[in-house]
Amino acid sequence: MPEGDTVWQTAKRLHDALAGRVLTHSDFRVPQYATVDLTGRTVLNTAPRGKHLLTRFEGGLTLHTHLRMEGAWKVYGTGQAWRGGAGHQIRVVLGADDRMAVGYRLSVLELLRTEDEERVVGHLGPDLLGPDWDPELALANLYADPDRALGEALLDQRNLAGIGNIYKSELCFLLGVTPWLPVGALPEDRAALLPGMAQRLLEVNRARPVRQTTGLPRKDLYVYGRASRPCLRCRTPVRVADQGDGTQERPTYWCPTCQSGPTPAPGTAQRWRERYPRPAR
């Protein structure tokens, strides 16, 4: 799934393209909403909530979408070719004047009353990029299950909303602990830093075309996607293994020297070492 900063950027593109305009084109390409026509309604705004997108229309309607792993919203001007994917992957098209917003591969697409938005986003924890951000509540949510692995807890949007697999790995590196460390074992001084650090990472990256966590030129990320490559701090090869609750595991990166704490079973890490062999010297 995309990170919260990516969703924020998507919301901004949709808002800038459609907000305040009257829809002149409305085309839902999913059976449930095949007969829905929003033409003539004014688009009020598009707002992100964690990894969810809420596009609101006059008359008290909201289009709720979620990008999941493969979804995307693209905005095109008059005469521009639509390059977001094949035609059969389009789920909805909303147009106003010279702008067309096209939703591709949206696995979550739901039209609801605006007053019912809490039904789809009310379960989320404090939004790292939202007006409801509350670092103390976010930390309390994480500590509610002290035996849970930190990496899994960070991905749980009920604790705090906006962190994806990239920031999970990068935050654990910056905190100096492995993603498998139980939340309750996180040293108190580092736990105090976690909410602010997470919020700052997303805040500074929401306006960047390329995400960066290192502050180093031409080196964007410390560990994510760097399996078998040297750690930027200590030169130890970065490792990768699956992490998850058994229903949805994700590749997780860490430096065995810079990060202390539990590591996954050897067999799990071995599968990823075979996929990402150490580069020849």
Automatic annotation (TrEMBL):
Q: Which residue intervals define the domain Formamidopyrimidine-DNA glycosylase catalytic in the entry?
A: 2-121
Which InterPro entries does UniProt cross-reference here? FPG_cat, FPG_N, H2TH_FPG, Nei2_N, Ribosomal_uS13-like_H2TH, Znf_DNA_glyclase/AP_lyase
At the top of the EC hierarchy, this enzyme's class is lyase
In this chain, composition skew of type Basic and acidic residues spans 271-281
Give the SUPFAM superfamilies listed for this entry: Glucocorticoid receptor-like (DNA-binding domain) (SSF57716), N-terminal domain of MutM-like DNA repair proteins (SSF81624), S13-like H2TH domain (SSF46946)
**Is Transmembrane found in the keyword set?**
no
Top-level taxonomic group: Bacteria
Disordered: region residues: 258-281
- Alphabetically list the UniProt keywords: DNA damage, DNA repair, DNA-binding, Glycosidase, Hydrolase, Lyase, Metal-binding, Multifunctional enzyme, Zinc, Zinc-finger
Q: What EC number(s) does the entry state?
A: 4.2.99.18
> Biological process (GO) annotations?
base-excision repair
Q: Does the keyword Zinc-finger apply?
A: yes
Domain FPG-type: residue ranges: 222-260
Question: From the UniProt record, which GO molecular function terms apply?
Answer: class I DNA-(apurinic or apyrimidinic site) endonuclease activity; damaged DNA binding; oxidized pyrimidine nucleobase lesion DNA N-glycosylase activity; zinc ion binding
The similarity comment for this entry is: Belongs to the FPG family.
Query: By what name is this protein known?
Result: DNA-(apurinic or apyrimidinic site) lyase
